[in-house]
Design goal:
single chain, mainly alpha, 62% helix, 0% strand, rod-shaped, Filamentous hemagglutinin
C-alpha cells in the first residue's frame, strides 16, 4: 500500500484541476479565485462610488473671522501692535 498516498494526492489534484484539464473551466480552482477577486473588486468600486457621492457638492463653510490668511497679523486682536511696529 505504498502507492496509496500517491493515489490520494493524484485524486485531490484531479478534483481541483480536473475540470480545467477536461476543458470545463468553470469548475477549476483558478476560476473560483478569479470569481472571488472580481466580487472583491466590484464591492470595492461600489464603496468608492458611494464615498465619492457623499463628498460631492459644496465644501463646508469656513468662518473667515477666526482664521487670518497667511502672513496677515491683526495686532489689535493679539494686543501686540507696539512690538510688531
Amino acid at each position: 500500500m505504498k502507492g496509496h498516498r500517491l493515489w490520494v494526492i493524484a485524486f485531490l489534484a484531479f478534483m481541483t484541476n480536473g475540470s480545467s484539464l477536461l476543458g470545463i473551466g468553470q469548475g477549476s480552482a483558478g476560476s473560483v479565485a478569479r470569481a472571488i477577486e472580481a466580487n472583491h473588486n466590484i464591492a470595492r468600486n461600489i464603496e468608492n462610488a458611494s464615498a465619492q457621492g457623499m463628498l460631492a457638492g459644496n465644501p463646508p463653510i469656513r468662518n473667515e473671522g477666526v482664521v487670518f490668511g497667511p502672513f496677515q497679523v491683526d495686532c489689535s486682536a493679539i494686543g501686540m501692535c507696539e512690538v510688531l511696529a
